[in-house]
Amino acid sequence: MTTLDVDSVQAFVAIADLQSFTRAAEALGTTQGAISVKLKRLEDRLGQRLIERTPRSVRLSAQGAVFLVGAREFLTAHDRAMAGLSAGPRRFGLGIAAHVAGPEVPTLLARLNAHDPGLTIEVRMDNARVLLDAFDRGELDAVIIRREDDRRDGEVLGPEHFGWFAAPQFEHRRGEPLRLAALSPACGVRDIATRALDSASIPWTEIFLGGTSSMVTAAVSAGLAISAFSRRLAPPGTIEVSQRFGLPPLPPSEIVMFSTLTDLKSREALRTIAAGFRDHRPSS
After folding, report:
1. Top CATH class, 90-160+254-259
2. CATH fold group of domain 6-73
3. What is the pLDDT of residues 19-74, one digit of tens each?
4. CATH superfamily of this structure's domain 162-251
């Protein structure tokens, strides 16, 4: 009977999640050469090629995609067994920007809990600036936000694309300023939207200035105004109206995760978070 080596399976899952031998080595605190050796050992034991590697890409083979599900379950069972021997609960403070949180968050947290049952997860949702300040003060172990400034560190979890959304019954009378529902002046999406309108010389006026996200959603859903939203977080029942009203395209951004944790357990938790987020993002 073929038996599995935990380190080799862990190396394979890290390569699959991060799509890079280099990043997998960094996440596991080892070298790229050691990662390659572990993968080859696993492939030889299984008699299957699990990873297809070219000079430009690293991706799962058909056999690797099938094996990945069982590999995750194998590591989860191993981690649960080891967690029973740990000295007590550990705290993990995670900040998620309110304008980033989507349908993937419950699955992400469930996967993190399954990965390490001994981990006490404390989640904080707020705007990106507040979370980054808390992170810089050491109050949070990791934060997930939309990149909105010149800060270039952090791990990219995926692209973020925007569009103009309104209710199907929304009407914009020619010659009148475009009615725009927007969050506070500190909102990054508001800045993206208003700059795009100004560059296109499209007059606009705001309603619910400084309102909450629920107020903005209510105004747009009711047909009172238009607003810029991430395409994955647009309110149900609204439609993209860029072409309908001749509105300018909105530049994309990125979702990034910041953390300074370096111990093995924490890096494994961060890798679980990143994989959970990526797995539930729609293709662009």
Report:
1. alpha beta
2. Arc Repressor Mutant, subunit A (1.10.10)
3. 889 888 888 888 989 999 999 999 999 999 999 988 788 899 999 999 999 999 88
4. Periplasmic binding protein-like II (3.40.190.10)
* Domain 6-73 matches domain 162-251 at the CATH topology level: no
State the CB neighbour count (10 A cutoff) for residue 170: 20
274 vs 141: CA distance, rounded Å: 14
Quote the CA–CA distance of 14 and 24 in Å, as a whole number. 5
* Residue 284: how many other CB atoms lie within 10 Å: 10
For the chain, strand residue ranges (E) read 51-53, 58-60, 90-97, 119-126, 142-146, 155-160, 162-166, 178-181, 204-207, 227-230, 239-240, 253-259
pTM: 0.61
